[in-house]
Design a protein that fits this description.
The chain contains 31 helices and 34 strands. By secondary structure, the protein is of the alpha/beta class.
């Protein structure tokens, strides 16, 4: 079959893909013609073909734990929602949706809730990542407009990355930036408390104190007072006097005191910004996820507005989104305080326009409950029926234990998802099987406002259906007209027509030129950046605001005062460290997709807390031991990763692990639900915590062809895929009475079904067991009293379920196949290259990252491992020199 053009389901870069179904699976490649990535893919995109299996899929509707027909399930959902509305009013029901939905799915869900049910109680997991950016844009520009394009990163002379670990979270975009620096010599500044991979690659790293971004940019604004574009400010803005007065109160001295950065280091950055005409400031979750997130955004926007560096090639503020369709969701009003087509919920004229267009009985007239408040309302009984689509709030929302309790208490919970078991779905009264990526059709919009098609290249499995179909079926069963769409193309046409309705240049989002696409044209749609007006007099400009034209009532931007405020909670004697959460390179959200790919688990396979050596010594934490991280909300147990790259006084724990993959690592269970008062976005980057060693007496590592079944008898476990099976980290606070019994129960070894080899050194506390069925390795377990002394052979993990393993004693000793050398811990997930392969290349003479790439291919694809490769080269040099 020919390759089918589609787009990646991960981050907001919006990379184009070519998917070619084959008899033995699907071949995935980057689309060299797509303007977001020009053929490049990150490690997650490169491994997409490995995530398409149907294991653990939800394939049939389920009601109260029993399989039912679609008619029964949909009738129950429609009737229960209708009954709740009749008895308690429209605000007694709610939808919680996701940036993983396609625009067409989002559109019909928003239309149903706001226009026909009559409530604005529809919010999105985008509230957790982009709401502060939306609020900042709307306060400054009068609209949720991202002014620039990806090309600006390649045209800028200075790129400032704020709270954005681009190298790991948007790696293809980061590689475009690094390539531009090599060509043009642009300078990169990284502003981040952690010395991330991005910060290591930057020309200047400003390791500011957590939560002090407003002070840093207020100091910058004060410095820029003498470098203002006075003509631009006078013609196109308001509020500069008050904004500058607030900035003056901070100044360089105040910024230095708040950020903890030396004044001369700040002054160097301030002068570089002032002296450079082409400046792009990229910001992401480190800015947004704070109780001061909206003010952080406006502090950044103020600097660009004061200098007129906005909407011009190579100049402007740039919010990069975390999900593939966070932007599309914002376009159709998928947040509780917005209307579709970038219309304003508080504007009576916009509400009338929308109601007339939809021919709906009403349009919600006040904002609905935002994510954190929504789940509080569920917990205290204000919500009678909840529908969750394509997201896992039991893990991703703050105060996760309270979210669990709220879902348990809610009278009626519907979950539409692609997987059968999540920490959220265990609370569902009705489960609806949704189509997954590769099975559904529609559009997504990336961070630069570029609309791309996601196309189906696989058949719908079982009884799975697209989300738009599920929503419209429920709407029809509730008796609402206007939902008889034959397919996603018809929904897109209505969405595009709505963006043009009553617009005439008064709103930024205009897709009028796409409103008449027939089904064939929709199917063939190539990536297009909005606005796309129906009949522009001149070609539509792809950047906004170089000549003003903001979307406020007077068409002027607003500079806002941004006085400094502390985070909601500060560290103290009881909780002396600040917890930051976020992503790691090869995992995504709560791992419902990425956990299927063995190579994506091989880089960082278990939950961890990254801690500075000084803090590790202070709290008695040794490398690779287990650590209890405690807040006022709860505690988790994770592995210690002691690293100079962490800021003293702060720790980092990734967001991805759930009860499906670890014993106790849901990091959001530690985080209180404090939110930004303007955006409603929770503070996920600043939680005071305490840490202490977790007392265990043994550590273990296991590989198994079957999914292991760890239980409460273990103090700790973390599960990950391996080639042909699974790998498991485990630990206990007491030795079991019978290691063989533990092994058999853990790995599903039935008596008499396997030949078990064992080695025991009771004095040293070392135990090794391996089970074989003939020449097939079924499972192996390695136990030792310390974490470092446990045998962790990646080569052994590759042997699970192979039928040609004759060296039984070698496996017991922790050695792999003689024909398959142990590559060591994975470094490059794109090309599957391990530590030992890179070390061998360096010893053979590869003395640069480029030379290692030529010898091993490590770092030759998305490049997100290049910094780690560089560290290995330096370590090898030191070793040789020693």
């Amino acid at each position: 079959m020919k390759a089918i053009g589609t787009s990646c389901p991960y981050c907001g870069v919006g990379c184009g893909l070519l998917a070619k179904p084959r008899r033995d699976g699907v071949e995935i490649a980057g689309d060299p013609e797509h303007p977001a990535n020009f053929g490049r893919l990150c490690s997650k995109g490169a491994a997409l073909a490995e995530t398409l299996s149907l294991d653990e899929r939800l394939l049939r509707p389920v009601s109260d734990g029993r399989r039912v027909s679609w008619d029964v399930a949909l009738d129950r959902v429609a009737a229960t929602f209708a009954e709740a509305i009749a008895a308690h009013g429209p605000d007694s029901v709610a939808f919680y949706v996701s940036g993983q939905l396609l625009t067409e799915d989002y559109y019909v869900a928003n239309k149903l809730m706001k226009g026909f049910i009559g409530s604005a109680n529809i919010d999105s997991n985008s509230r957790l990542c982009m709401a502060s950016a939306v609020t900042g844009h709307r306060r400054a520009f009068g609209s949720d407009t991202v002014p620039g394009t990806y090309e600006d990163l390649e045209l800028a002379d200075l790129v400032v990355l704020v709270g954005a670990n681009l190298a790991w979270c948007h790696p293809v975009l980061f590689q475009r930036l690094l390539a531009a620096r090599r060509r043009r010599g642009a300078r990169i500044v990284a502003i981040d408390p952690r010395r991330t991979v991005t910060a290591e690659a930057a020309d200047l790293h400003l390791a500011l104190a957590p939560g002090s971004d407003v002070a840093l940019f207020a100091g910058l604004l004060d410095h820029l007072a003498g470098h203002a574009d006075t003509a631009y400010v006078a013609r196109h803005t308001r509020g500069s006097e008050d904004a500058l007065a607030a900035a003056r109160a901070v100044g360089l001295a105040g910024a230095s005191a708040e950020t903890g950065l030396p004044a001369d280091e700040l002054a160097e950055f301030y002068e570089s910004f002032a002296a450079t005409e082409r400046v792009v400031t990229v910001f992401s979750q480190g800015v947004n996820q704070a109780t001061t997130g909206a003010d952080k955004v406006n502090a950044i926007l103020n600097c660009h507005l004061l200098t007129g560096r906005i909407g011009r090639p190579g100049a402007g503020p740039f919010s990069v989104t975390g999900q593939p369709n966070a932007m599309g969701g914002r376009e159709v009003g998928g947040l509780a305080n917005m209307l579709a087509a970038h219309m304003c919920l508080e504007d009576a004229g916009h509400r009338r326009l929308l109601q007339d267009f939809w021919q709906s009985p009403t349009v919600a007239s006040r904002p609905g409950l935002k994510a954190v408040d929504l789940f509080r309302a569920i917990g205290d009984g204000r919500i009678e029926a909840l529908w969750i689509m394509a997201t896992n709030p039991a893990d991703s929302l703050p105060d996760a234990h309270a979210v669990d309790a709220a879902l348990e208490r809610c009278p009626f919970v519907v979950v539409s998802d692609v997987v059968r078991h999540t920490d959220t779905s265990r609370h569902a009264d009705v489960l609806l099987p949704a189509a997954a990526w590769g099975e559904k059709d529609g559009t997504v919009t990336n961070s630069e406002r570029r609309i791309s098609r996601q196309r189906a290249f696989l058949p719908l499995p079982g009884e799975a259906r697209p989300d738009w179909w599920i929503v419209t079926e429920v709407a029809r069963r509730m008796g609402f007209p206007g939902f008889d769409f034959p397919g996603p193309a018809a929904i897109f046409r209505e969405h595009a027509a709505l963006t043009a309705a009553g617009n005439a240049g008064t709103r930024d989002l205009d897709l009028g030129g796409l409103a008449s696409l027939d089904d064939a044209a929709y199917e063939a749609l190539t990536p297009v950046q909005w606005p796309v007006p129906a009949a522009p007099v001149v070609p539509a400009e792809k950047r906004f605001f170089a000549a003003g034209g903001f979307f406020t009532r007077d068409r002027r931007a607003r500079l806002l005062p941004t006085p400094t405020r502390r985070p909601a909670k500060l560290a103290d004697d009881e909780f002396p460290l600040v917890l930051n959460t976020g992503r790691i390179r090869d995992q995504w959200h709560t791992m419902t997709r990425t956990a299927k790919a063995a190579r994506l688990a091989a880089h960082l396979a278990e939950p961890f807390v990254e801690i500075h050596p000084r803090d590790a010594r202070r709290f008695g934490i040794r490398p690779a031991t287990l650590v209890r991280v405690q807040s006022t909300r709860g505690a988790i147990v994770v592995r210690a990763l002691v690293s100079e790259r962490q800021r003293p006084g702060s720790v980092f724990v990734p967001m991805h692990w759930t009860d499906r993959f670890s014993s106790n690592a849901r990091v959001d269970s530690l985080i209180a639900g404090a939110v930004d008062p303007h955006s409603g976005q929770p503070e996920l980057k600043h939680t005071p915590v305490a840490i202490r060693p977790e007392p265990v007496v043994w550590y273990g590592f296991a590989v198994s062809a079957r999914r292991p079944a760890p239980d409460a008898a273990l103090s700790y476990w973390a599960l990950a895929r391996a080639a042909g099976g699974w790998r498991l980290e485990l630990a206990g606070d007491a030795a079991p009475a019978d290691w063989s019994a533990l092994f058999a129960k853990l790995c599903g070894i039935r008596t008499g079904s396997a030949e078990v080899h064992a080695y025991r050194d009771v004095q040293r506390g070392a135990h090794r067991l391996a089970a074989f069925a003939g020449h097939r390795l079924l499972a192996a377990l390695y136990v030792a009293p310390g974490p470092v002394s446990v045998s962790r052979s990646w080569a052994v993990a590759q042997l699970v379920a192979r039928h040609d393993q004759e060296r039984h004693l070698a496996v017991l000793a922790g050695h792999g196949d003689s024909g398959m050398p142990d590559a060591g811990a994975l470094v490059c997930a794109c090309c599957i290259v391990g530590v030992r392969q890179i070390e061998a290349a360096v010893l053979a003479g590869a003395d640069s990252v480029e030379a290692v790439a030529a010898a091993t291919r490590a770092g030759s694809n998305c490049g997100s491992c290049r910094t780690e490769v560089g560290r290995l080269i330096d370590a090898c040099r030191l070793s040789k020199a020693g």
